[in-house]
Amino acid sequence: MKPELSNLYINQSSQTVNYTPIVSNGGKGNYPVRTSRRSHAERLEESLTKAWEEAEKQQETLGAVSVSSQHGVYLEIKGQAGYDLITKSLENTTQKVRICNIKSEDDGEEQKVVSSTVFVPENKRDFFVKKLNKYKETETEEKVIGTIESINLAMVDALWMSDKNELPNNTPKWCEVWLMFDMKEVVDTIIGEFFQICDERQIQHKNQKIVFPERVVLGVRANKQQLSELQWLSSRIAEFRIMVTPTSFFEELSELDQRDFVKDLVERLDISEQSNTSVCLLDTGVNNGHDLLAPLLTDENMHAVDPSKDVYDIANHGTRMAGIASYFTLEDKLENTTPVVVNHFLESVKLFDRSDDNQRELYGYVTESAISLAEIQNPETNRAFCMAITAPTNTHKGDGRPSSWSGAIDSIISGANVIEETDIIRKLMFISAGNTSVTEISESGDVKTAVINHAIEDPAQAWNAITVGAYTVKYQIPEELIGTYHPVVEPGCFSPFTSSSLTWSIKWPVKPDIVLEGGNLAYDENSNFYTELPDLQLLTTSKDAATGKSFDTLSMTSSATAQAAWMGANILHHYPELWPETIRALMIHSAEWTDAMKNACFENNPPKRMDYRNLLRTCGYGVPNLSKALWSVSNRVNLIIEDEIQPFYKKASGSITSKEMHIHNIPWPDDVLLSLEDKNVKMRVTLSYFIEPGPGEVGWKDKYRYPSCGLQFDVNNSTEDQDNFLKRINKAMRDDEQDKGEVKNDSSRWVIGAYNRNVGSVHSDIWEGTASELSQSNHIAVYPITGWWKLRTNLKKYNSKIRYSLIVSIEAPETEVDLYSVIKNKIESKVSVENRTTVSTEVTYRK
């Protein structure tokens, strides 16, 4: 594993340019070069022959009949370290040659090796021989065979997809077996054949199944030798995985056993007593007498907006949120035996007991009052505010337009609600996207349709908040319900409970911003009945601990929001000096989409910009990765820029016009990138800032009247010098994306594209190309677009400045190269020359 390195901070990097608006293809594959096709093919052919011979010996050892037409061999095909492996042509489904899995692993020398396990039937053993012969004589199979470094007989390790440390040795463990099948085949027949093999080999199995497209998941209790036997005796194995402990295991324990688990975890807690970071829950109160919450939430940090009410949880929501906001995944902490480090404490402000306790028009006030209570109690604390209470779509339009509640939140986060500028404290706030109900799913008959039609709930349309939607990796059904119920969505897909902004106009922000675990839903096809199951939810703390019940469950966008707040608090703890705008940027910058999300949202292959719009407005920017937000590594570097810009000014004539734009010259390691030539690299850029909401309902009808101003970024093309880049940016300045005079950038380089990203107050996109191209694309412009600061001259905000955070990262994913040290040295050299002193470029990090 590469050593974790602090992110790099570029201070005072911008070049300010007077700004006057003027009206108006991706990288190649990284493949190894073979000097002799014939010798390469002959070497692979020799390995292939050896693999078949070893397979026949193994069959004889097991006492099985010789390999029949229904059997064959599993081959492990590896690419060369640091290079791509073309896997598409490794299978032919009509010939029953099937790819079981594809994975990428470190080779021990910090290079990635891509490998694929392929099943080849006995009667198709010439499948690869034919490809090798063609490759010898012509270039027909060059892009396939040329990328293969080795062909070997696949062992259990090649099929094991969980953590290697979880692979059972002599002691049996409950494992998942993922079997392949064609959609035309009868799944129960395949399962029966597999269970017969298990019975013959005396391998214990569960009488349950989970069916996904072309995969069925079964459970067996086996050691490594027994898994190997299953591999040799079944032609259906696609993967082996460790079977996770279901949530219901803890929830269904006796009260005594629950207390034992709690006691064990309490003894392993390592709480940072000097922490100045909290997760502040704006919810229904918390019962802090729970042994897992008491060390983190003191009585002094519990409040209620209504002083006539107590601070405790009657509604059974806030306490469950607290468990996840404290431990992220409580099941993992309970199962483990290692110390559990907690870097933050909790605060709780009770907004109300039930969602109908307050008039809708008071929600903004209630929220502001709640935040004030926490800040008055602990004025110096760095907080991640967490609010998983929203108004159902039947109480507001759900069209993306700001409401009084969301407007108040934008004001609170930006500090616009504070009269004195010196008193402004900007905030980091997480809000749940709102939940698609089981009724909606049942009535629509389709999860995707239900999620599309359920718009993000009020106040989650707030521009400055991090709106959290839900995805899920949960799919386990209790054994007694297997065969009756199955999970509605596959692992990695968006949760059936999440909501989207697909019904909004394109001018409104991308929501949700990110997604985290929100659980799954179970479905009975025979009765057409949907139900929520504990095993498909997250384990958390119960409000009834005082009466003996320690655990409960939580799901939907509530659990996802609690996880997001936990993650935000951890980044705040490690980097306490960073702005809230920067924490938001880091979380979004670290987020990635899963393959399951893409498969569910993309309608075209290759995907078009509309497909990315669907993906963005369903899953946001994806699942945030705490490690990637906190750290750089040698070949993936995060650069952090915090700056402020004055977008407008008042001319002598009295008119208000644009004032300035910023140019950031990014210290790319030019020599290193040029040496990599046409190898693929990625650059990601994320721009985050807080808008001030336009006062008064009249301004909320137009997005340019709602925000104080907007900012956008652009990067020079590899063929542009800075002068030509500046001309193009000024020419491209526009008030509306539909402006016919818009000048297009080289948009093919960007995954999301300007049209999708340039909405809201956070913009993120991924550039893909060659290293040599990126070496020349080192100028990033940040420029303003209009807003009410410019248009409402009577408010006299035209001289105001706006802060922004810019995260820029570079990644050479499959190349052994040290980008970090070169960039760090370039930054330090520049700072040293300018200031005649040595200044640390690493972001201040708290252990």
UniProtKB/TrEMBL annotation:
Gene3D superfamilies: Peptidase S8/S53 domain. One of its GO terms (molecular function) is serine-type endopeptidase activity. GO terms for biological process: proteolysis. Residues 275-622 form the Peptidase S8/S53 domain. Pfam families: Peptidase_S8 (PF00082). This is S8 family peptidase. It comes from Anaerobacillus isosaccharinicus.
